[in-house]
Amino acid sequence: MEQLNGSFVWGQIRRRNPDSHKGTYGTVLAVAGSARYRGAASLTVEGALRTGAGIVTLASVEPVVAAVAARLPECCFLPCAAGPEGGVSAEALEQLLPAAEKSRVLLLGPGLGNTGDTKALVENLLPAAGGAVVLDADGLNGAAALLAEGKELPRPAGGLILTPHPGEMSRLTGQPVRELEADREQTALSWARRWNCVLVLKGSRTIVAAPDGRAWINTTGNPGLSRGGSGDVLAGMIAGLSACGLPPAEAAACGVWLHGAAADETARKRGQYGMLPHDLFDSLGQLFAAAGR
Question: Given a cut of 90, is residue 155 above it in pLDDT?
């Protein structure tokens, strides 16, 4: 298993072509947020924008759209009907299906809420996606519900990236956390092969495993990331890098390293107690600038 490092990351993320345009760097459709978790949507779409995606569209309920529009004028929006628990309703599938087919990356899950509507979105949008899919947070909970029913996860045309923390991984597999954590490398590799996906097993020294047997272990990051919202930023970053053209495994590996490196720089400036997930973006920009990206 290889250790992630800056040489690998900057070898994957190339300088932008002077003749490029927004279409060069792809489209992300982020289905995220609910009345209760508005910040999750904001963090995840900013993560995609700050890692270079050409166009990022947030599909969400009106209170989330209003909140994010006030912060991020660069984001596009697809307002959706709300379900009874304040998240995106399954009734919005009529709007979402054609948008998912056309997007280079579908990001599904942050802040949606663990509901029947979310499960229906996962079940119907994954097979319809025209590109890669990043499944995070409540998207993973929806996937876990499908797996518990004996259904298989569809593999989207552009590949599937799952980003579970240990608790989510336990729900996906039905295994206790202590068993999964006893051999994190083997856990990530075996389930990546079984589900035919790229698996980002989060935690201290996050592991990225590909279905072809490649795997990386991360050495960046610190306990200052141990707060709500950090994972939303990471999911957006992986989606943004994927939209720029990186293959799923490389997008996940680079996103994980950059997320941790930005956190290390942020901790030096604000301390692990004082740093917040949205502080990562300034540090992320400094990393890109230092590398000439």
Answer: no
